[in-house]
Structure formats: structure tokens, C-alpha cells
Amino acid sequence: MVSKTPTKFSKSTPKSTRSRRKKPSPLKSLIATPSAVAASIDRSFRSCRRRLIKIFTCFGILGTPKSRKHGFRRLKTVPHDDPAPPAAPTPLPPPSFPGRKTVILDLDETLVHAKTDPPPERYDFTVQPVIDGQILTFYVLKRPGVDELLKEAAKAFEVVVFTAGLREYATLVLDHLDPGGEIISHRLYRDSCKEMEGKFVKDLSVMGRDLDRVVIVDDNPNAYACQPENAVPVAPFINDPGDRELQKVMKFLEVAPLFDDTRDAILHHLSDNGIQKSQI
């Protein structure tokens, strides 16, 4: 008996039973071939670059004004408007007495001498400013003639005290020298100084006063480095009870109103005291 059961599959297989060829996984292909990775990344970059160029080209076209006779015009570069630096503030308000000249007096070593602990043998008063969160005690000695100088100067001049000292300290000292606030018209402190090469300079040109009507009395030549011709120099005061520097200043203040230009009065004063202009 012959068996009818086929021993081999037929060569023609139905479509439903045909096995489909599997496509290789892109990820596996990239892993298998490193060069393909680089090529794929390069294509991505180039495609992205082309798209960006198209986008920015559109922006350029939109931003270019239409012209009847010409084609596209190059967009103008808009300059950055940097804000101008603020003008330096005028330290002094308009003078209360327009007809008067202005005398600017230094404080430390010109009108007074002050030191911290230990206390000296001689001092006139103490002040205790708070500086950097710490209470400090200053022992202040007035220069001989300071009270007379301030009173006489206030009769004919606009009196300004301009110190390179800290406001916290100097304010308390000036309150002792002028308790009623009737002598000193204005007070200027370190924050009104100009710092040049690590030194505090008192620039008279920004004070709102004509330089031919201003005189500064100071023991430190660095302070009046910008306008030495406006300075009446004095020797530094420490603790000499026989000091006579302020008496010389009072003599100058007596003759200064006779000169149209205060600088001429200063030259006259210096020559009378044997001081050459080059020595200032």
C-alpha cells in the first residue's frame, strides 16, 4: 500500500505562509559600523545648517525695505547707545552771599589735631564716631587761633570746611567748632574728594565757584594738586602751643578782598612770608 502522505513540502508556498525578510535595525547598523555614525551626524548637521540659512535669509528679506529701482539693501548696523556717564555733581549749592569770596579750610592738622587711644596729655574735647561698626574715641586738640579765624573769616567770606576725613568723624568735630552752625556755610568730606594715584585731591574746579574767587588753606600739598595757585599752605599742626600759622592766615584774609583775583592776593601773601610760588 502506497502512503499518500507527502514526504516533501511543495515548492510553491502560499502567500500567507511566506516568511518576510526582516530589515536590519538602524541602531544595530550604526553600532556595527562606526563610520555610518559619523556620516549620519554629518548629514544631520548639514541639514540643520541649511534650514538655519533659509530662516535667517527670510529674516533679512523681511527686514530689507522695498525699493523701486534697486534690489535688496544691506541692513544697517545699529550702534549701541551706551549711556553717557553722569555729570559730576556740584558739591556746593549756589552761594548764599554772591558778592563774597570763598575760603576753603582743611580740618585735620590745619584747624585741629586728633588722635585715638591712648589719650594725650593735652586735648580740648573728645568725639566718639561709629566707624565700621566700632565706636572709636578721638582726642581733639584745637590749633591756637582757630576760634578767632573762623569768626573773622565768616564776616567777609563764604566759609567752607573741606576735609579728606570720614564724615562720621569730621561731622562731630565740626559740631564742636561751630555748635550753632552760623560760621561754616558748607561741609565737604572724603566722598567729595577726587582720588588720584591713591591720594585724596580736592578739585576746586567742580565746586561751582569761580577760581579767581576761591582760596584753599591746607597743610597737605596733595590736597590742592589740581589748583596749587589757589592755595595758602600752612605747616601741619600736632601739639605746639606756640603755633602761629592761623594768625598768618588771618592777615591774608584781611588783604584778600582788596584784590579782584584771589590768586594775586595769594602771591602777595606768599612773597611777604618769603615763600616762592615754586615752593607750593
Give an overview of the whole structure.
With 280 residues, this protein is an alpha/beta fold. It has a domain at 101-112 and 143-279: Rossmann fold (3-Layer(aba) Sandwich). The protein is 29% helix and 16% strand. It has helices at 26-32, 34-63, 146-156, 167-177, 245-255, 262-272, and strands at residues 101-105, 112-115, 125-127, 130-131, 134-135, 138-142, 157-162, 186-188, 194-196, 199-201, 214-218, 231-233. Strands 8-7-1-11-12 form a five-stranded parallel sheet. Helix 3 (146-156) runs parallel beside helix 5. The longest helix has 30 residues, at 34-63. It is globular, with a radius of gyration of 43 Å. 23% of the residues are buried. Residues 1-16 have a biased composition (Low complexity). Residues 1-29, 76-97 are annotated as: Disordered.
Binned strand content: 15-25%
The CATH topology annotation of the domain at 101-112 and 143-279 reads as Rossmann fold
The average pLDDT is 81
- Main β-sheet, in a few words? 5 strands, parallel
What is the global morphology? globular
**Tally of alpha and pi helices:** 6
Low-confidence stretches: 1-22, 25-32, 60-65, 67-72
Structural class: alpha/beta
Topology as a string of helices (H) and strands (E): HHEEEEEEHEHEEEEEHH
Helical coverage, percent range: 25-40%
Q: Considering the protein shown, what is the CATH homologous superfamily of the domain at 101-112 and 143-279?
A: HAD superfamily/HAD-like
CATH architecture group name of the domain at 101-112 and 143-279: 3-Layer(aba) Sandwich
Number of strands: 12
Strand order of the largest sheet: 8-7-1-11-12
Distance between the termini: 144 Å
Radius of gyration: 43 Å
CATH first level of the domain at 101-112 and 143-279: Alpha Beta
